[in-house]
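ugh ok fine here u go
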Amino acid sequence: MRWFLLVLGIGATLAACAPKAAPAPEMTVVYEKTGGFMPFNDRLAVRGDGSLTYTDRKKATRTGKVAPADLQPLRTLLTSREFQDAAAEYRPSGGADLVTHRIEATIDGRTKTVTYVTSATAPPVVERVIAELEKLAQRAG
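structure:
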């Protein structure tokens, strides 16, 4: 019995001393999609803990939650040099029924905002970020 308690105590001590995984950086992303033919007026809020809040053009709100690991593709895109170097706005010279996508990402206290209007030329990372956000919007509620 003493050996069992000794082994149990040593195991607990080692577990407490084991290196902890570094916490993921704090992240909040607000994605707004407006305009278009219908028109859109949608908003998605994503938090680093996996919380999702989606509001559609009719002001109906849905909430959901994904595993924080499911946000890793988005986090990787948002922290990439390509996204961080993106311009604040990408607008075409003209067009009708265009959709505006606004991405405001705050990671570890640093905020980056990019506005992209369909038909404009933007770095591929901007469209990849939008695609990830659209996938998450589908998972909210």
